[in-house]
Design a protein that fits this description.
The structure is a homodimer of 238-residue chains. The first copy, chain A, is built from ten helices and three strands, in the order αβααββααααααα. The first copy, chain A, is mainly alpha-helical and 238 residues long. Chain A folds into two domains: 63 residues, Orthogonal Bundle (Arc Repressor Mutant, subunit A), CATH 1.10.10; 132 residues, Four Helix Bundle (Hemerythrin (Met), subunit A) (Up-down Bundle). A three-stranded antiparallel β-sheet of chain A has the order 1-3-2. In chain A, a hairpin with a 3-residue loop joins strand 2 and strand 3. Chain A starts with 16 loop residues before the first helix and ends in a 5-residue tail after the last helix. At the A-B interface, helix 3, helix 4 and helix 7 of A face helix 3, helix 4 and helix 7 of B. The first copy, chain A, binds a DNA duplex (30 and 30 nucleotides) through helix 3. Chains A, B: This is Transcriptional regulator, GntR family.
DNA sequence: GAACACAATATTGTATACAATCCATTGCCG
DNA sequence: CGGCAATGGATTGTATACAATATTGTGTTC
């Protein structure tokens, strides 16, 4: 499978092949083109991206580590299906971490950072206007990650990264149709607070934004998606 | 060691070979038998544990993800050497997460949990008395992880797990000899607060304990350990 | 016709072989 | 003698082959 050489000049640190595959899979999950529970066969993925199972396996393990996919021994990899309990924990963790990072971001953001954030929002609006809800959701997540990055806490930013990824799955599973996706407004206010160097406001805005998101999820009904068929098909009463 | 998670599959699977190797390496790092910067050759490790490079590679990738080892493309894996900046970030993250988990743990701990914690302390004392400083350090870390587990936040517990692991490296690199290792006292007080269901006290005790640890590190001197030989041997002035 | 046992198939787990890359030594030339 | 380039060895990156395991299909028995 020798791919023709691209026009790319020799870069000293070419991206590892497994990272490319992991990135592509991650994007597909974030944009809800892959649904929770979907089987991710190694041969199949390898064929798509023109790499061997070795690479695919590495990519899947990487995604499994951030809990975007679940790997079951001798059974394969599946797009993860966070339980309601896990969903609650993810949002509790976000509510603990992100308000603080927003505060720090307000203290450290440069003009260029603000521009980046505004560009994110613009892209998000454009995607939404184009009806590409998956892409809008993905960009919305990137917005949060960008804030953590601006805060200069790469460790916490890594955690936020993982939490955002899982949130995407959670939204795919538990989003209530009734509640509209009106985050753009919250994001806009957040940018203004950060641009205005108003740490406390940024912190409060982030907190309430996350609480809004959390409350727009349906984590109480017993309509939890089943982890296994056996679990799914059993009568609740019996 | 990691206890099996709540979502145990219906079949009791043998531990994967790569997990065994990763666990062994992790333990060696935690107990300071492997120093930061040590090269981890794949063939060498494979020979030690009687497995092929495939397994070793998986284990190393797993450890790289929690930043216990650094992998450099085409150069191999090394025990990670957190910079002073990274060290600060790790402890800032711990100071953000762990006091809260201590609070929650106080609210949820069962009698059995308290016993487990006391057993941890006893083992830690025993190891220290036996002069096994590495093992004592490891057990001290497990104590913190156990508290996060008791708090019932498996997601945050996972983060704490990673932070503890990195802390072990940080202590290996930046611990000031002058300051004595007097944590046992802090851990003891923490247990009492948790046993007494005193959440606020547990939170405060955890916070001050972490601040103590943090301040016992030497994160200001420019004696940062070099990441590479080249960097180490260059004259500072030139 | 239903339930079970067994065989066939497909998929994952692991080992090994080969290719690519880096590092060190060595030899050459200034 | 010092710096630079070519070359050899060692190590990692990737592909493939084989082994182990789960799942599915089929036949037999009651």
């Amino acid at each position: 499978m020798n791919k023709p050489h691209s026009t790319q000049p020799r870069t000293l640190h070419r991206l590892a092949a497994s990272d490319r595959v992991a990135e592509a899979l991650s994007l597909a999950i974030h944009e809800h083109r892959l649904s929770p529970g979907t089987k991710l066969g190694e041969d199949e993925i390898g064929e798509v991206y023109g790499v061997s199972r070795t690479i695919v396996r590495t990519a899947l393990q990487s995604l499994a580590h951030i809990q975007l996919v679940e790997m079951h021994r001798n059974r394969g990899a599946f797009v993860a299906q966070p339980s309601q309990q896990e969903a609650r924990e993810v949002f509790e963790a976000r509510e603990l971490l992100e308000p603080r990072t927003a505060h720090m971001a307000a203290a450290r953001a440069t003009a260029a950072d603000i521009d980046t954030l505004r560009a994110h929002i613009a892209e998000e609006h454009a995607a939404m206007a184009a009806g590409d809800r998956g892409r809008a959701l993905h960009l919305s997540g990137l917005f949060h990650i960008e804030i953590a990055r601006i805060a200069g806490q790469t460790t916490i930013a890594g955690f936020v990264d993982e939490l955002i990824a899982r949130s995407s799955l959670i939204i795919a599973l538990y989003w209530r149709r009734e509640s509209a996706l009106c985050e753009s407004h919250a994001h806009h206010d957040l940018i203004e607070a950060i641009a205005g160097r108003d740490g406390p406001s940024a912190e409060d805005l982030m907190r309430s934004h996350l609480v809004d998101l959390h409350s727009a999820l349906d984590l109480h009904r017993s309509a939890a998606p089943a982890r296994s068929l056996k679990e799914a098909l059993q009568k609740p009463g019996s």
